[in-house]
């Protein structure tokens, strides 16, 4: 056997004997050491990944778009790592004095400490483990590594000789690999200080609302003393007197080791506890009390995160990644725009109204969601009469999701027929003499819009709507019969496909069935009979604003891992889904409903003509009313922003909101856009070419 192998064997034998002593045994038989197996006679460098590249659970923080305003945090352990250089020297001295006074003299295993523990165990019948600070770090790192299985983590804390041997060997190997200060820093970041605070950064904030760099002598001694018994000595929830007793012990040890003058220690002992506790918010229910409306955005963020394969194969894995990964997430939520959005929503309906006005604001070209507002409390508090969503709810009324299928958006869906027609080669100038009632080829089962078993929509205001129309004024005046005819020209299935291409999700099982199996005969789809959400609708119109670039709606601007590396999952997910000229032509027609004028001066009347003059910048959009005014919808967009709001009763679809609310919606959208764009340059839409405006061509599917 060569000398190197003898050294390794000696290390294992020594560690085994010391482990036996530390556990209170007289000695560890050599047979037990050998019984561990030759595979355990590993070289010093054979450390597990948990110690070579530690990944302790750290909290993830979700910030507003400014990168500073904290929305909330997500964690199973409230921890944020800090470099050891950013920890006050007095805190470093205190933890060494409290836990391992010979830390800078030994090499990972303290023979003197083991002998002392053995003597005390034999004399007093106690159980002193003689664990050095390095050994404690090894144990905590193995027990808390999310990459290990539950069984592997449990082995790190089992009370066995085998565990103690592994711990000692890893401690010896670790000290050959990294410096004492790095070990100390790792220990300070992983130790539990009680009251839910893991690591020195969380502990400094939890107990004193300060940072590790600003800790005083008294504060440092108190925190260092908590590590031994964090659950019982925690001065917030446990025994404050015990915590003060431990503080005095640590200060005495610091005097004994020459780290602190006796007079300074005496002054620190005389200080009051002077706690200034602050809790780190955890999850969406813990958004700041003054910003309860942020909860709906936060909830949608968690839905988005749970759908990202970059963070795990399953929802459970993705949640573990979020709550243990230490991510810094800058969201797309603009606090100023959100504040104005909720202010305007409450002018449509107050929280005391059972009807709701969910509203979304989306940035064209990125898909970033700047605001999500609804007149509800984000809360799980009980509701009167067992109502699901009034006045308290955590359901996703703005973006849809479990239990929320959405709302009919009426004539706003005419956009999809318009786009399908333009893409088929029809120009904006396509004329049709729109009758009061138009009998289509689409079969329908009864109802007021049935003529001999065929769908036959009629115009809401025949005097204003009937007659010869083009895409410009038919979209502006929202002429039902024109778009029913247009749908026949291009095919209902192409209209449905266009909606899906622009991000309309069919959350209703019946809508999904029709889209899948009956799209060819789904003529009424053009008039918005399918359920949708303000977010889907705002994003679909944002695609037109971005000249045909569709972006997946996203709640994030950037995601950074604990090392400062940006993650690709935080980038916009965009692609060109429309020919640029088709999108420009649709935007040109969409200027008509809101009182703006098309590039070719072809707008002649609109359903929300008061909107553009008040904004004093190029604007496009559409209004929509479902049957019997059960819901009312307003969408408006500029090249920089897209806003959609839908008035509905989420708990009772039979409760028609009535047409009068649309006036308040239009005013609210106008004020919201004016505020959000107040500091942004006035941008115009790029005019469509004369070909797409006036000439019929082959299908326009290229870019």
Automatic annotation (TrEMBL):
It comes from the Bacteria. SUPFAM superfamilies: beta-lactamase/transpeptidase-like, Lysozyme-like. One of its GO terms (molecular function) is penicillin binding. Residues 360-639 form the Penicillin-binding protein transpeptidase domain. It catalyses: Preferential cleavage: (Ac)2-L-Lys-D-Ala-|-D-Ala. Also transpeptidation of peptidyl-alanyl moieties that are N-acyl substituents of D-alanine; [GlcNAc-(1->4)-Mur2Ac(oyl-L-Ala-gamma-D-Glu-L-Lys-D-Ala-D-Ala)](n)-di-trans,octa-cis-undecaprenyl diphosphate + beta-D-GlcNAc-(1->4)-Mur2Ac(oyl-L-Ala-gamma-D-Glu-L-Lys-D-Ala-D-Ala)-di-trans,octa-cis-undecaprenyl diphosphate = [GlcNAc-(1->4)-Mur2Ac(oyl-L-Ala-gamma-D-Glu-L-Lys-D-Ala-D-Ala)](n+1)-di-trans,octa-cis-undecaprenyl diphosphate + di-trans,octa-cis-undecaprenyl diphosphate + H(+). Residues 71-254 form the Glycosyl transferase family domain. It holds the Pfam family Transpeptidase. InterPro entries: Beta-lactam/transpept-like (IPR012338), Glyco_trans_51 (IPR001264), Glycosyltr_51/Transpeptidase (IPR050396), Lysozyme-like_dom_sf (IPR023346), PBP_transglycosylase (IPR036950), PCN-bd_Tpept (IPR001460). One of its GO terms (cellular component) is outer membrane-bounded periplasmic space. One of its GO terms (biological process) is peptidoglycan biosynthetic process. Keywords: Carboxypeptidase, Glycosyltransferase, Hydrolase, Multifunctional enzyme, Protease, Transferase. PANTHER family: BINDING PROTEIN TRANSPEPTIDASE, PUTATIVE-RELATED, PEPTIDOGLYCAN GLYCOSYLTRANSFERASE. This is Membrane carboxypeptidase (Penicillin-binding protein).
